[in-house]
């Protein structure tokens, strides 16, 4: 009997030793910015959830930060679909909520947020965008209330980081701590549309200006396998350049496209949904865009299957 127990103990020690020598590779998810086109991320996440793929880290910029941050906070893809299907599109773009219509919690957040903007005698210190961002902040504050106590984003259900741009210096700012909702708003503060956000004394705008696909930051966190979802535009023709947003996107895309060649090569599984023809403000076409993301991910199912874990599906997450 003693020999039997010694044999079992030896087998256990061997298994533990092998487990330590061959740890599971860490899987990271990088989600690019792209405005409404970033809703395609949700479609890709639906496939990832259905396969039970364990995501160890999420990095995102702009809309990729918003979708990725909510996913990292504990929502599954179906829940994200439901959330964005019920968003008031007009309010999202106009972004104004009468104060008297708000709950006490929302009013309190407005006051916190007002202090983070570069106000000088009740006027923004920098030229403000068309939208103050309060509707978005109220929405994200409500959606992230369950993790409002978290200040280190490594302590979220899935560790997370996002990218913003310092409006004064043009430097990249990595946001991996603080108030999650505030960081998500800063990462998506698209110039001319939304007001800058001040965090730790720095005036921040949309991270897509400097890094719209933060794979380097993700890999620096020890990630072995990167699933990347890219919803960025290619360069537009003269005929396609209509309005200030498309011109701004074109200017930004000059450098981004050049950088993406190396970023794409560093991505283990590169997913680029077929969303040409959709704009950054096509939130009213959200279901179509989500469908495009799911369709592209399903088309790459053979690359995703080796990461699958059907015994622990992500769609069981709450």
Structure description:
By secondary structure, this protein is an alpha/beta fold. It has a domain at 26-88 and 137-165 and 172-188 and 200-310: Cytosolic phospholipase A2 catalytic domain. Helix content is 42%, strand content 13%. Strands 1, 2, 5, 6, 7, 8, 9 and 10 form an eight-stranded mixed sheet that branches. The protein has a two-stranded antiparallel sheet with strand order 3-4. α10 (244-265) links the parallel β9 and β10. α7 (134-143) packs across α8 (180-187). The longest helix is centred in the last third of the chain and has 22 residues, at 244-265. The radius of gyration is 21 Å and the shape is globular.
Quick overview:
By secondary structure, the chain is α/β, with parallel strands linked by helices.
Query: What shape does the CA trace take?
Result: globular
* Biggest sheet overview: 8 strands, mixed
Q: According to CATH, what is the class of the domain at 26-88 and 137-165 and 172-188 and 200-310?
A: Alpha Beta
Spatial gap, N to C terminus: 46 Å
Residue stretches low in confidence (pLDDT < 50, at least 5 long) are 4-20, 96-130
Mean pLDDT: 81
What's the architecture of the domain at 26-88 and 137-165 and 172-188 and 200-310 in CATH terms? Answer: 3-Layer(aba) Sandwich
**Superfamily (CATH H level) name of the domain at 26-88 and 137-165 and 172-188 and 200-310:** Cytosolic phospholipase A2 catalytic domain
Compute the gyration radius: what is it? 21 Å
Helical percent range? 40-55%
Structural class category: alpha/beta
**SSE order, as H and E?**
HEHEHHHHEEHEEHEEHEHEHH
